[in-house]
Specification:
This protein has 245 residues and is of the alpha/beta class. The chain contains nine helices and six strands. Strands 3-2-1-4-6-5 form a six-stranded mixed beta sheet, sandwiched between helices. Helix 4 runs antiparallel to helix 5.
């Protein structure tokens, strides 16, 4: 995927759901993975021509694993003119200890990571956090909800966190995972390998493979499923009108 196409899809999401307002300071949760680096690249570029002024900060939560470095991300942030912060934690060790009590500590780890990210974002004056959830993530969340909770749900484009004053936005919602991969390869993004021992061994990974197989057998099904979510009367999925020009 070329940069202009990425800009177009991200801007469409920003406009459709009024994700950005004047003088927002937006924290991008950066893991070092392809998704968050693509989002970083997109918002840093759009910032220069978007009709509404906003600021950016990139924040990485270091889980404390040995031999994990984010120095390539620091270099990219310097090139893009985005301040980069690393929040040091022991979440990796705590989560592994938690794994002795339950099969997978993933939900526990995610909760701690989000808490650390939110607290630091607030401390540097951010009022919004941009998550790098793309279209496939949204579909997978819907399937997880259907299969394991018995409800039709997926996380919303914009989610206010009433207890903190922060708002979550998801600007990559119109971008497919294959497009993210193509963008990462084309622009040689400095992806850092996920050191988590549970990476690729979760219910989400099972659902990812299920959605992939469905789309192979029924070409275009992912787009139809995404339309079903948009038109499914799910809370907070109503588009803002009229769109900005």
């Amino acid at each position: 995927m070329k940069l202009q196409k990425l800009y177009s899809k991200v801007r469409q999401a920003l406009d459709d759901y009024n994700m950005i307002t004047e003088n927002d300071k937006i924290a991008i949760g950066v893991s070092g993975g392809k998704d968050s680096l693509t989002l970083l690249y997109a918002l840093a570029g759009i910032r220069s021509f978007y009709p509404i002024h906003f600021e950016l900060a990139a924040i990485a939560v270091d889980l404390g694993y040995d031999d994990f470095t984010l120095s390539p991300v620091q270099t990219l942030c310097d090139e893009l003119g985005v301040d980069f912060y690393i929040v040091k934690t022991d979440i990796g060790r705590i989560s592994l200890e938690k794994s002795k009590e339950q099969a997978s500590p993933c939900s526990w780890c995610a909760k701690l990571r989000k808490g650390a990210l939110n607290d630091f974002a607030l401390s540097i004056g951010c009022n919004k956090i941009a998550y790098a959830h793309h279209m496939d993530d949204i579909l997978e969340t819907m399937f997880l909800s259907l299969l394991y909770e018995g409800q039709f749900y997926s996380f919303a484009p914009v989610t206010p966190l009433d207890d903190s004053g922060l708002t979550i936005i998801r600007p990559l919602m119109y971008v497919g995972e294959s497009e993210v991969k193509g963008f990462k390869n084309k622009y040689d993004l400095p992806v850092c390998k996920n050191p988590c021992p549970y990476d690729g061994h979760t219910k989400r990974e099972y659902v990812k493979q299920l959605v992939r197989q469905l789309n192979l057998e029924n070409p275009g099904v992912k787009k139809r499923l995404f339309s079903a979510i948009q038109n499914g009367n799910i809370d907070d999925w109503i588009k803002c009108t009229p769109n900005r020009q």
